[in-house]
Amino acid sequence: MAPADTPDRNRATAEAILPLVGGAANIASVAHCMTRLRLGLHDRSLVQDEALKALPAVLGVVEDETYQIVLGPGAVARVTPEFERLVEAGRAPQAAAPTAAGLAERGAAIKAARKARNATPFKLFLRRIANIFVPLIPALIGCGIIAGLNGLLTNLHWLPALVPALAALASGFMSLIAVFVGYNTAKEFGGTPILGGAVAAIIVFPGVANVDAFGQKLAPGQGGVLGALGAAVLAVYVEKWCRRVVPEALDVLVTPTLTVLVSGLVTLYGLMYVAGEVSTAIGDVANWLLANGGAGAGFVLGGLFLPLVMLGLHQALIPIHTTLIEQQGYTVLLPILAMAGAGQVGAAAAVYVRLPRNGSIRRTIRSALPAGFLGVGEPLIYGVSLPLGRPFITACVGGAFGGGFVGLFNQLGAAVGSTAIGPSGWALFPLLDGNKGLGEMVVVYGGGLLVGYAVGFVATYYFGFTKSMLTDLNAPAETASPADPSAVPSAVPSAVPEGGPVPVRAGADDTLEPVAEGRG
Description:
It is a single chain. Helix 6 (137-156) packs antiparallel against helix 7 (163-175). Helices cover 63% and strands 6% of the residues. It contains 20 helices and eight strands. The protein is mainly alpha-helical.
């Protein structure tokens, strides 16, 4: 039984991590997402990877533009403030200490090389999309669960006096989500966040119903989050132009006025209409795809989601999920994509069975499976299936069949959706919604999970290993200590065939965190 979560425990975790990443002087930036502590480092070579992965609180590490330490949902939000306090307290004395000649230059070169590898325009665009939408996920989850609870009470005719209050709690955030998207967009693109929010607020203002554009009346909320994103980006460019040309004495009056006026008028007489058409098309295409080719579409989406997460391309789906939730109250894509996590769990269980004498890998699987069932897949992916190679592919097969199962029921008329993005696995049950009763939604989604588990297990059991892999791996790991879950990498490389998978760096998100990340 894990000890209770306390400030002392969170501080102890932060104190254990800090020296293993080079101390306070080596920390350039600190941030966190749904499951990962993200660190900008001056010198990557100072990090003690194996010792870090051996810490009980650390579920895994991922290297991207930042060094990402997987702590899990909830834990990372509590450990990060303690870590930031330690870094702040340790910087002054460490900065005064003498450093090796060229340390700063070497760290800068390493950081620049890493940025160059990951700074493709498309990846930078996706990273910005994630930075805009990921901070909204906690509110989406909380309001989504309240919406599910409210639906349950409504269907059972319980506590009728409480239902209107819960409806207000669940819907308040969604009615103003465009404002939050505008705020985050302006912040991400280097503008004044409140001006981005002010321009985006035009979209949800009831008075826009009195505005004619392209021969028709606008509707409050038309264009949704896509319109808010475009409006806020435009506001940033208008603001930056004003800062360059407006005299300093007039800047405080003229710049915000012109920013809201120009970008607001363009939003009303252009962006809202265009974004509204795009949003409608997204909803229509998603519904048509699953209604007419649900099984096939689900098979493809469920099978490809893990590779998309590895490449960071899953972030492109975040605005699509949000648009679907805004339009119809739920996203039909997330339950299908969540099947990738089910395939991963089934594959890990098969690895456990096939390697009865490899204590190191089996210990890692035992510790990571509970998180995997709840939709947190990083420990299993980076500690087990991806280093082994073939089990990662068979996990994708399990996800494909699970996605095909859920997609088939969409094709038959039972649309299963989620009222929020982020959770997957068992954690998605409280967020289920659709066009049928809650019981049917639970049966369809639960059936998909079972199919994903079963196919991932069978595919991995029979096709996840070559004979040489079993011979090399199915032996006790002599160098692994009983409490050292980080020993997996030392036992795994021999299983990867020559010319096989190479180490993969994850994309900007966490995603598997929240989604099959997931949400992230």
